[in-house]
Amino acid sequence: MDYSLQLLMTLPELVLAVGSIVLMLVAAWGGHQSTKLVSWAAIAVLIGAGIALAGPASSGGDAFDGLYRADMFAAFSKVLIYVAAAVSILIAPRFFQRTSGDDLRPEYPVLILLSTAGMGMMVSAGDMLTLYVGLELLSLSSYVLASFMRRDARSAEAGLKYFVLGALASGILLYGISLVYGFSGTTLFDGIASAYTGGERSMGLLFGLVFVFAGLAFKMSAVPFHMWTPDVYEGAPTPVTAFFASAPKVAAVALAVRVAIEAMGPALHDWRQIVIFASLASIILGAVAAIGQTNVKRLLAYSSINNVGFALIGLAAGTAEGVAGVLTYLAIYVVMTIGSFLVVLQMRGPDGEPIEDIASLAGMSRTRPGLAAALAIFMFSLAGIPPLLGFFAKLAVFMAAVQAGLIVFAVVGAAASAIGAYYYLRIVKTMYFDEPAPAFHGKPGMVEGGLIALTAAVISPLGWPLLLPLGAWTMLAAKALF
Asked: Which family is it part of (predicted)?
């Protein structure tokens, strides 16, 4: 294949990599005064990377002898990642100004761009080494982002916990990759799939499969590798938490789908057992553990664990319909999650300090009716209550599981979703029926207010016209893997 065409296939990552390096130099020479310029330039870079997806980057096939894959599946995942990254940059300046009394530093958007480049490599990986390089670029940037507020003890603790546990998970993943390589003789997904095709698979390949999925489960924050999520989400700055709950989640789930279908597709019955266990455990534990939470960011952390469990239902099906269901779920989940964290950003005390207690939401329907209505929409949608789009997200993965013959699994997952509905509805009850707590101070900025209104409208029945094109796009993206 022509080398220039291969470069065009990787153009989104090239745009992100070059853009982040250039903006890093601008930040180094410009100092704090360059923050606004770097932030808007970073958003422009993300838009440029999105535009680059329109060419061979979405349909070019394999590049660099199979190390990199440019297809519709990767393109769809990258669009979600770029949108979440851009929102995380947009909402950061006002948060840092009101929280620490100090302007946002220009390193923040640069770190977001670097982690986004890593996520792009992850979802386009056609080789275990490409996968690992992209994953580590994301991880190293994320450790710094979690501890970005250096003078805040909780932020520093979040970064340290994330680093220690992330290093352990990377070691587990790398050990699994080494086992797969040792017993298959290749790190390319196509070659690994050929090794799993044989009638009698070696024990080494099965152990490699287990360790690879364990490492990926950590990045998805799926049970039993979820333990870092509540502490990191609570301690990290809220814009960073919104980023962690959206973009890296999409990248991790998309990566797991690609590895499962392309590299280990012939071992479907082996990894399906792992996925079903992780799915049900994440749904149940995420729901039960969230019930006793008093901190809204910790509650949303357990909500993200719960939602990963639902996304994995589609993966367990192992079909194109299942993968399309996963992508549909991720798209709607990103909008619901970003909207929820945008509301959390408005929870401020008289001195501008963040308020994170769920009890402080009491009576918000009377003190901030618009904000309460938006949060109620997000909570009802996360609970999967029709006619909001969260219902259709759950319906997509349940239908895929039923079509694949996993009827009992789908029924248990649907029943377990009722547990999660409790803590979502508890927030709505607190806002609308409890005696009012002191009103939050300050009003949403123009950007934040516009994003809250937009995300709430998309999730509401006003977003129904988007379901048909979304379904067509996700099916097109899913078929790229089969």
From this structure: Belongs to the complex I subunit 2 family.
Rg (CA), the chain: 21
3-state DSSP assignment of residue 91: coil
Return the structure tokens found at 378: 């997000």
| pLDDT attached to residue 349 | 78
Distance in angstroms (rounded) separating the CA atoms of residues 80 and 40: 19
> Is residue 263 pLDDT above 70, yes or no?
yes
Q: Would you state the pLDDT for residue 375?
A: 92
Task: Give the residue among 12, 61, 19 at the shortest CA–CA distance from 480.
Answer: 61
Phi, psi values for residue 354, rounded to 5°: -65, 140
* Crossing angle between the packed helical segments 296-317 and 247-258, to the nearest 10 degrees: 20
CB atoms within 10 A of CB 419: 17
Q: Where are the domains of the chain?
A: 11-480
Q: Using CA atoms, how far apart are residues 246 and 124, in angstroms rounded to an integer?
A: 18
N-to-C CA span, the chain? 22
d(CA 283, CA 79): 26
Residue found by looking up tokens 């792992």 in the block: 274
Q: Is the peptide bond before 248 cis (omega within 30 degrees of 0)?
A: no
d(CA 76, CA 12): 13
Task: For the beta carbon of residue 404, count every other beta carbon within 10 angstroms.
Answer: 20
Per-residue pLDDT, 42: 94
Instruction: Tell me how far the alpha carbon of residue 109 is from its chain's centroid.
Output: 18
Other CB atoms closer than 10 Å to residue 65's CB: what's the count? 11
pLDDT confidence of residue 1: 61
pLDDT at 101 over 60: no
CB 238 within 8 A of CB 345: yes
Number of C-beta neighbours around residue 347 at 10 A: 23
CA dihedral (376, 379, 382, 385) positive or negative: negative
**The residue count for the chain:** 482
* pLDDT tens digits for range 327-372: 999 999 999 999 999 998 888 877 777 888 888 888 888 888 888 8
Chain centroid to CA 470: how far?
18
Nearest to 190 by CA among 324, 61, 9, 72: 61
Element containing residue 68 per DSSP (H, E) = strand 68-70
Alpha carbon of residue 44 to chain centroid: 21
Asked whether 298 and 230 are in contact (CB, 8 A), the reply is yes
pTM: 0.94
